[in-house]
Amino acid sequence: MVDMTKQLAQLVGVQDQLFALMIEQLESASARPSIDIRLSTEIVAKVIYHERALGLDPEDTTGEELYNSLLSLVELHDSFLVKRLGGTNPADVSDMLPRIYKLICNLKIPKSVWVLKHSVAKKLIRSLPPKNVMKQLGYRSIDSMIKRESIDEIMIGTRVVESNTWHKNFIEKYKKLTPSDFESREATFLLLDGEKWGSKTMSYIKSHHQNITHLKEMGTIAILPIPINTLPGITIALLPRLLFYLNELRTYSTYFKHQQVHPGFGLMLVNTLLDDPSRHVNIAGQHLHWRIVHRHFGSGNVKHPDFFEPHIRPDDLFWRKAEDILYKIEPALHFWYEMDYVGVYANHAPVSFNLMDLTVDYINKRSYSKRTYFHIRESLWNELFVRYLQQESVYSQLRMQINHQVMEPLEL
Questions:
Q1: 299-312: per-residue pLDDT in tens?
Q2: CA dist 382 to 6, 31, 321, 375, 385, Å?
Q3: What order do you get walking across the sheet with 220-223 strand by strand?
């Protein structure tokens, strides 16, 4: 195996021989452009450049030294972001959460989504009243709650305080939905009131290790209250995640729009929301999730294909990495631009340059031995497949399958 390919296998966490077989299939299908070698070489060059930017010697830097330097930079950049947002104390949760919420709401980027109509959501809630939400908000009547509370907040509340059984039963009701139950509108951001929701959000935060939740079918993203006063890194941890989830909403929105011409629309919704199958297209024997398809067409490097018309417009496919937007808010964060898939393999695991990995470690004060590398692995997989999709022969396979899906229902 070529050493460069082995490096990629280590970073994505796949056994060498399996990874080599996958690469061989992709290379064969794309007239052998050596994407894996080029990507590996690029990663090495980026690591060297950024280590020097950190004041480190690429020839004499351990994984732990690099990790600690990256965490120090996260701390510095968090202070820059806080200042940019008008804050003074990076650890002041009660001050920074409203500032983060205001920024994300006012950010001038595409936020349109194709999601469930509010009137339809209200009918569904009436058909299966969320008793835990009603109790938490102090209502005995479902009609009174719907009249006085935002349906977006009610629906988010079900995500947080209702049981998995209730949630599954509720989603099953989507089988009867049709495309006419959906509409285009702006994604909704919520900042939940800590006094209103009390400690109910804590179990969700502990189990999911973050204070953000979202509903794909509603186009809603919520920031949950944190019952602590100080948390260093709250700004630089939350902002990229909010942008990440906005991409998620829009990714699934385009998928729902793409599927609206097929019979069994409601069943597709249920299967997607409960199981999220990943076999949307098959390229050189590899099953790819719609997320990669959306990113391929939405990155700005590919002309909007006519086979998405008339349901999906160019604006629907807009997709940008969180880091691409963050550095425009605070220019110092350009350090993280196009670094989400970059890492160094050291001490049996990657040292990630992915900002979301590093903010998890910073905010939780994780040691080097317990460092996070989930996001770099996902980003590197996506980057690898997107680069192969840019090859004409592979793109032709993608185009053929999507054209076929327009005519035939997709099996889930």
A1: 766 665 665 666 77
A2: 17, 20, 12, 11, 5
A3: 188-191, 220-223, 212-215
